[in-house]
Design goal:
InterPro entries: ABC/ECF_trnsptr_transmembrane, ECF_CbiQ, ECF_transporter_component. The chain has 270 residues and is mainly α. The protein is 69% helix and 3% strand.
Length: 270
């Protein structure tokens, strides 16, 4: 099985485990979406040199994984796949920012390295939380929640169709790679000069497949609107969940909790 196909099946597995019956899965999708958005805003709006102040935010994904009965290995595996992109985004910071921030003896740590670590932590937190949101909500309920909080219908429809039909593109890509491998005598993967014609064939096949799918949808009465039937009422548990976590995020955003705890302990033992 090709790696891209295996990765796609893993992503589908995230959506599959969203049907579990746990405390987190039973929460209202709108509440989970709003809480996640507040979490992302609180994390990403922190100072570029902030590291210790971000540590309390790890409590949120940790609680969701524990209460939602989610496989931690699967979340970490998804995170490792995008790790190179995270490193690529922040790796230039040490080359740009040479401002001395920390002195440890003769060792001077510049602001570029501090901001690089801070950026890596923030990206890990936000991506992990987004994966957990999909794994505890499901794509259909998530799209319905997006509609309810005011996201334009056209954007939600495109997001839903992209998720539903991207596997068609993956299937076509795997079919092209398999056909090339069966006709190749080298067995060293796709050669560089063959990628142009291969991607061209993939584009033509995708357009033809998309037209056939669209015609099939029209024959079944598709009128441009996707009707999502799952609705959930707001409960007391939803309100408590929302108030608790939003308050925690605001406190964590405006106060450095590890520093306050350290000062408190030093004051007690002084």
């Amino acid at each position: 099985m090709l790696k891209i196909e295996a990765n796609w099946l893993d992503l589908r597995y995230l959506d599959a485990i969203s049907t579990q019956d746990t405390l987190i899965h039973r929460l209202n999708p709108c509440v989970k979406l709003i809480t996640t958005l507040v979490f992302i805003i609180a994390v990403t709006s922190s100072s570029k040199y902030e590291i210790t102040g971000l540590l309390p935010f790890f409590l949120f994904p940790a609680v969701l994984v524990a209460l939602g009965n989610l496989p931690l290995s699967l979340i970490l595996k998804r995170l490792l796949i995008i790790a190179p992109f995270i490193v690529f985004i922040g790796i230039f910071n040490p080359l740009i920012d040479h401002t001395p921030v920390i002195n440890i003896g003769s060792l001077v740590i510049s602001g570029g390295w501090i901001s690089f670590v801070s950026l890596t932590i923030r990206l890990c937190l936000t991506v992990t939380t987004a994966l957990i949101l999909v794994a505890t909500t499901g794509i259909d309920a998530l799209c319905l929640a997006l509609l309810k909080i005011g996201v334009p219908k056209i954007i939600v429809t495109q997001l839903l169709f992209m998720y539903r039909y991207i596997h068609v593109l993956v299937e076509e890509f795997v079919r092209c790679i398999t056909a090339y491998s069966l006709r190749s005598f080298h067995g060293e993967g796709v050669q560089f000069r063959a990628w142009g014609s291969l991607l061209g064939q993939l584009l033509l096949r995708s357009i033809d497949r998309a037209n056939r799918i669209y015609q099939a949808m029209l024959c079944r009465g598709f009128d441009g609107e996707v009707r999502l039937l799952r609705t959930r009422t707001l409960t007391g548990a939803d309100i408590i969940y929302l108030i608790f976590w939003v308050t925690f995020f605001m406190v964590g955003r405006w106060f450095n909790l590890p520093q306050l705890l350290g000062n408190l302990l030093m004051g007690v033992y002084k």
